Amino acid sequence: MRSINNSSSYNERDYLFDFIKPNDNDLLSLMKGIDLQELLYRLDNYYLELRDKLGFSDSVTFGLELEFEKADRYRIEDRLEDAGLYPEWNVKGDASLDHGAEINSPILRDEKENWISLSNVCDIVKEHAIIGKNSGGHIHIGTQVLGSNKEHWLNFIKLWSIYENIIFRFLYGDSLTHRISLERYAPPMAECLWEEYNSLKRMMIHNMSFGYMIDELPSDRYNAINFLNVNNPSRFTTDNTIEFRCPNGTLEPVIWQNNVNLLVNILEYSKNSSFDNDTIDKRREINGDKYYDLEWYNQIYLVQALELADMLFDNNLDKVYFLRQYLKSFQIGASVLDKPKTFVKKK
Question: Which of these, 286, 337, 323, 295, lies nearest to 188 by C-alpha position?
């Protein structure tokens, strides 16, 4: 089990972790009745905060694209330069947004100073821009995290196709619904990935090459996942990434960190020798095609979320961070970017 670095000692933390221990790995999907009710009640009184580290290996690399609107771009540049963050955290215009701009991070690793830099960037942007109804929060993860094993890629495609409804609601971040531009620039892929999975699975018996498999993946960059940058899965190279385009934009560093944690753990779990095909196949049988409509992604599927948490994470703290952002106090949104009750601890 990965070590957990979180030294805070707030009352709400004690209230939750007197019930479940943060470093344990309880199977939350097996909780029933009063135990599950107690967990959810305590969870709703817990507020997330930025962690020093998430416990990734040194081989995990990622990059962030922070989009925002009504931006005083040059003032933001000046402030970043004063803070010693520019030009590593690079600002550029974004014509697809209303007076839009975006900041591209340098290549990052799971280090305390990088999370502090992210927090400082968000604080600066908050003073000179807003998250609008079209702002996205793209995350690039180095392809080497998943590697060159074809079975691992098939596991990833399968897992995403069946749990995309859970993943999307989580990645809405501090909103209850998706941004307006998501359907144009980062639409769901569950249906097409399920078809690709079955097609590629059949091709495995014909000694399909890795290059052929990658060529068969969706080739449009404007999808929830962009595979066009994949070029060398066996080792780290610059710009060799899987790009996740579906997260909503946010200026909350806790949510950025939490989004990265989920996506990295999805890739890492896809390589796990204990990848739970039985549970995943059963979930596919239960769900069928009925959750492929984006409108359904706003809803809450507690059993499915608990199931995914138990598969992806090996400690209760990560599970708590995942469930708190996914459940959002069990609120359901109706309008674009409706806001839930806050679940991030105020500074």
Answer: 295
Report in angstroms the alpha-carbon separations of 275 from 176, 280, 282, 284, 321. 30, 9, 14, 15, 22
> What tens digit of pLDDT does each residue of 18-43 get?
999 999 999 999 999 999 999 999 99
- With H, G, I as helix, E, B as strand and everything else as coil, classify residue 105: coil
Coil, helix or strand at residue 133: coil
Nearest to 261 by CA among 25, 31, 62, 27: 62
Tokens of 221: 């960059």
Placement of tokens 């080792």 in the chain: 235
User: Phi-psi bin for 179: left (phi > 0), alpha (psi -120 to 50), beta?
Assistant: beta
| Alpha-carbon span 90 to 117, nearest angstrom | 13
pLDDT of 308-341, one tens digit each? Answer: 999 999 999 999 999 999 999 999 998 888 999 9
Give which of 165, 235, 156, 140 is closest to 200, Cα–Cα: 156
C-alpha closest to that of 342 among 181, 145, 174 = 174
pTM across the whole model: 0.95
Three-state helix/strand/coil letters over 189-210 = CHHHHHHHHHHHHHHHHHCCCH
Q: Which tokens belong to 164?
A: 């995309």
What angle is formed at CA 126 by the lines to CA 67 and CA 55, rounded to 5 degrees?
70
Q: Cα 25 to the chain's mean position, in Å?
A: 21
Residues 93 and 158: beta-carbon distance below 8 Å: no
**Tell me: the pLDDT tens digits for 181-210?**
999 999 999 999 999 999 999 988 778 888
Exposure string for 267-289, b = 16+ CB within 10 A, e = fewer: bbbbbeeebbeeebeebeeebee
How would you label 58-73 residue by residue, b for 16+ Cβ within 10 Å and e otherwise?
A: eebbbbbbbbbbebeb
Cα–Cα dist 287/285, whole Å:
6
